[in-house]
Design the sequence.
């Protein structure tokens, strides 16, 4: 079961990284990210969130 969660989280992370522009266009802008990263910061924030989800998925798999 742990491996299935790993695969789901890994897929979610890759979706956040690959489709960050689409997610940004179809949801809302993150004002804090726009201030911190500058113009286009929401796109960068979604990529950072995706990478963190990928890292957590590997941690979850190894922790087991």
Sequence:
């Amino acid at each position: 079961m742990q491996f299935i969660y790993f695969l789901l989280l890994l897929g979610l992370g890759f979706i956040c990284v690959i489709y960050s522009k689409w997610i940004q266009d179809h949801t809302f802008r993150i004002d804090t990210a726009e201030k911190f990263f500058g113009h286009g910061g929401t796109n960068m924030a979604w990529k950072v969130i995706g990478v963190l989800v990928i890292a957590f998925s590997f941690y979850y798999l190894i922790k087991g």
Observations:
- DSSP finds four helices and no strands in the chain.
- Residues 2-63 form one domain.
- The chain has a mean pLDDT of 94.
- Helices lie at 2-18, 20-26, 31-37, 41-63.
